[in-house]
Amino acid sequence: MKPDPGAGLARYRWAVASRVAAAAFGGYALASATAACLAVWLPMARVDAVVTAMLLAFAVYAIGVTWVFATRNAWRAWGGMLGPAALLAALCWAGRSAGLA
Amino acid sequence: MKPAKPPQEQGEGLRQAMSWLHTWAGLVLGWVLFAMFLTGTLAFFRPEITHWMQPEAPARQAPMPAAQAAELAQRYLAGHAPDATRWFIDLPSPREPQLGLLYQVPKPAPGERGFKRVKLDPATGQEVHARQTRGGDFLYRFHFELEMGFPWGRWLASIAGMFMLVAILSGIITHKKIFKDFFTFRPAKGGQRAWMDGHNVLSVLGLPFHLMITFSGLVIFMAMLLPAGISAAYDTPRAFTNDMFPAFAQPKAGPGQAPLMPLGRFVEQAEAQWQGGHAGRMVVSNPGREGAVVSVGREASERVSYGRVAPSMQFDGVNGTLLARHDSASAAMVTTGTVIGLHLGLFAEPLLRWLYFAVSLAGTAMVGTGLALWVAKRRQKAGAAAQQAFSLRLVDALNAGSIAGLCVALAVYFWANRLLPAELAGRSAWETRAFFIAWGLTFLYAFARRARMWPDLLALAAGLALALPVLNAATTARHLGVSLPAGDWVMAGFDLTALASGVLLAWMAHKARKPRAQPAARPARARAAALQTR
Hints:
- The complex is a heterodimer.
- By secondary structure, chain A is mainly alpha-helical.
- Chain A has one domain.
- In chain A, about 80% of the residues lie in helices and about 0% in strands.
- In chain A, helix 1 packs antiparallel against helix 2 (about 45-70), helix 1 (about 10-40) packs parallel to helix 3 and helix 2 (about 45-70) packs antiparallel against helix 3 (about 75-95).
- The radius of gyration of chain A is 16 Å and the shape is elongated.
- The N and C termini of chain A lie far apart (about 45 Å).
- Chain B is of the alpha+beta class.
- Chain B has a domain at about 390-515.
- Helices cover about 60% and strands about 5% of the residues of chain B.
- Chain B has helices spanning about 10-30, 30-45, 45-55, 65-80, 135-145, 150-175, 180, 190-205, 205-220, 220-225, 230-235, 235-245, 265-275, 330-345, 350-380, 390-420, 425-450, 455-475, 480-485, 490-515, 520-530; strands at about 85-90, 100-105, 115-120, 280-285, 295-300, 310-315, 320-325.
- A seven-stranded antiparallel beta sheet of chain B has the order 3-2-1-4-5-6-7.
- In chain B, helix 2 packs across helix 6.
- The interface of A and B includes residues 1, 2, 4, 37 and 46 of A.
């Protein structure tokens, strides 16, 4: 990410800060939602599902953070983290309501 | 912000973005990561380092048969801790031939810890009286707790690990010629090219290891780091722990006293059922009471997968019946245990252990060269004007303090071990204090004498490391002249490794002393500018 000569330096800095926040907190939300959703839905013994979900969630976090800095702009970065996180959280809630865990 | 690129330029844009991410993810916690990598590398030899730091302890011998050792431990504990709610007994193993005992004090006095730890010499049945030191345990704990309070150190170390994982991923994407660059090393070019080639070789050489060690480090603390999965599936964290570690729940004690059976028979029974497997740790709950339970766990080094769930048997301590047996963990548990086991490397026999050490050292150097590259690249790009830039000076000094300075501090830790009087009160705390004081002083020196810091600090570390075997000879009777002929490879191995580290550090000091290669001419600078996005 290089400053765009057309845009101001301050704007560039805010965009970087926004992406860093999207990566750290948005990424953590996505990882947590992944872990929660898989822990409920994976067809395994409960403890196995929880552990498998956590293993996969770390990979999701790392790939998510990397993607945040690869995508076109900070808005997409936030959307790419929080959108799927909300979807997974809803799925997790649906699974719990259906008595899966 | 990065301007939107037309589709055909996406590939180059991605590489640029990843290069940026790699640079900054690597720098921000790079100093913490370097310390974690180096202390973690040493921690693969944790018991051996502790052994060197307690030269009074008896030399390594063939471990006493486990059943016999268990009864020795029982005699000691029945005499010293009859009221403890739990006894933990680490049976002798080839790497740790002493008996390690730990017991829970029922009502600790204010200010006293709830657990008491003792080491017994199996040959005599007596407590091992050696100088007080944290030994290799200090390096091991610093590696993931950074000497900060719980849970802050673990969180910081984990966040650093996450940065490392991101740096590795973005580094791979950045690196389009990953195979070709592996065979490229141009030290003669000096400056940025040499640092970058070195960084590439070290990173690619150990890439599977670096990925494994970083990911598995996070997995070890997964319950702390990602509790969402647990709270989604369980009502309480306790319920998860009980499912995860079924053999670990504390059984209820009965109302009356009841004699505990000799522990040796439990060991024999368990080892017979494991068909050649060895007992490692025993846990005796409610010893001397009704409801006593004896748990025998299999030696951790006998398999890759590591976990408190893995093979164990629980017996009734009063009548000897087998209560439960935990053998085959589920696929998910074995996978997790394997990931963690690969990180700890307890299964590694000597040759593999040295390979772990070597690749982990390459990982340490990968972080170190990456930090140096950050400075070298900027220095080359901006020429003389940048020499005075504040950020460059700051990062360079922090690099010197955290790379060369840590080497000095580690050497000082071992020096303090030999020089502090054996009977000094709070001795082990003074050893670690010496470590931190020395480390702090190296930072002061780095900021005070910027031009000389690299060669001076590296030379100091080299001198301290090279003189360690001499110091050992002057202060103990277990120096190389004795340990080598006796085949005492723990003592000799430490001294020889200190010598080898000293030679390596001296070479680095020599290299750092040379005048810095100046950017040759305009073309070189243009090329550097073209490469800056790498």
